Amino acid sequence: MTDDLLVPAIDVERLTYSFTHDLEPALEDVTLTLHRGSRCLVIGANGAGKSTLLRILAGKRLIKGAKCSIFGHDVFNNLPGGVVYLGTEWSSNPVVRGDIVVSDFLDSVGGYRHKERRDRLLRILDVDVDWHMHQISDGERRRVQLCMGLMGHWDVLLLDEVTVDLDVLVRADLIEFLVEESKIRNATILYATHIFDGLSSFPTHICHLQLGTALPLLPWPLAIPSGDASTAETDRDPDSLFHLALEWLREDRNLRRGRDSARGKHRGPKAETTNARTFFEKYDYAH
């Protein structure tokens, strides 16, 4: 990893990505630059490309013709150390659902080398090291994943919806830990989520990923125009982040509906057809 503190922690320039050549791009002309110590929330509708962007940054998808780097290193060919990606697909891996004790599981990935941080995370995440992985709930399994991923000294953290299974208390304690890590160690966090309660004090920036395109990065809290009392009052509202996300998502839905309409497509119910009735009568699972 370079020692040049001026090199961005995350640097994406004009990234366009399609899963196959015949599909519309999942990401189109995305540009995003974050410096060390930044904590950025990625906000966007389902299918906006949030998970795809995070997986690309984690070096899990090959890209061509775009700059996508962490600390100046190409993310696919030369991903630097200190990058941790935590996504939802982890919990569906059969290995993590096997009959293995949590303490053994953590030791198998080097927990004994990070005892102090591991033990602190075990307390924050309220994990019982005597749990058996195949006997615990999805939320408890998620806590083990977070402990496993965060106990090392990471420099860039990529989080994709991994707090969705956590209860409110554990999630709040985890967010406090992440903010502290970012401030003390100058670590950078890119966090995609649909849950905004309790997050107003977390981000330094917010990124609106709109139908695969990243709109300009905004600092958080938003700048308040001088003398605008109503805006100032809204910004002090702990739910202001939620309301901003809600406004953006409504805007995204209207934009997507307009595009779909222009292409002769739409979501929702369609007119009843004879074929549908025939299919239902043939496969009536209620009887």
CATH architecture of the largest domain: 3-Layer(aba) Sandwich
What is the share of helical residues? 25-40%
Domains (count): 2
The fraction of residues in strands falls at 15-25%
Number of helical runs? Answer: 8
Can you walk through the features of this model?
- This protein is an alpha/beta fold.
- The chain has two domains: 10-81 and 155-166 and 184-282, Rossmann fold, CATH 3.40.50.300; 83-152, no CATH class.
- Helix content is 33%, strand content 18%.
- It is built from eight helices and eleven strands.
- Strands 3, 6, 7, 8, 9, 10 and 11 form a seven-stranded mixed sheet that branches.
- Helix 3 runs antiparallel to helix 4 (138-150).
- The longest helix is centred in the last third of the chain and has 23 residues, at 240-262.
- Residues 231-236 have low confidence and may be disordered.
Features:
287 residues; Rossmann fold; 2 domains; 7-stranded mixed β-sheet
SSE layout and pairings?
Layout (H helix, E strand, L loop, with lengths): L9 E8 L9 E8 L4 E5 L6 H8 L9 E4 L2 E2 L8 E4 L15 H7 L6 H10 L13 H13 L5 E5 L7 H18 L2 E5 L12 E6 L2 E2 L3 E2 L9 H8 L3 H23 L11 H9 L5
Parallel strand pairs: 3-8, 3-9, 6-7, 7-8
Antiparallel strand pairs: 1-2, 1-4, 4-5, 9-10, 9-11
Helix pairs in contact: 3-4
